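---------- Forwarded message ----------

FYI, see the Profilin record below. Original note from H. follows.
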Amino acid sequence: MEWGFVHKAWEKWTSINVGSSTGEPLKSALLINYDPNAPSRLLSIIAEQEGINATPTEVSQFVDFVRRNKLQSENFTIGQNQYVVTSIHENCFCARSVTASEPAGEGAIIMHTSAFLFVALYDGSIGAASRAMVAVDQFAWQLGRRNL
């Protein structure tokens, strides 16, 4: 694992894509070390996080949700929001908060790379979701270049 590369790429990417001002497409992001083929007794580790203060318990419950692979029949929680999956794609799935405090709503994009689960949270609807997906794709592409 090239932790130095991952950390440097994360820092650079979050500096322009994650924040509370209107210019950033994401309000928070979380990178979880994840290997679906590893024994379930091995805990997934929070590799990086920005704009969120996820706990190991939260991450463990979220990873269990992903491992169960019942994306369309169960909800999941990240932070104070509960999400329902709205679309499933080859390497990612998207969700909307059912407990959103924002009038336009809140969404999540979860992407699986070969070594990580990447969680991106955003405020807003269709336009915000499009900007968030572009940001997620950019970071996933960087990891993919190193087969991470």
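H. also flagged this: The chain is about 30% helix and 30% strand.
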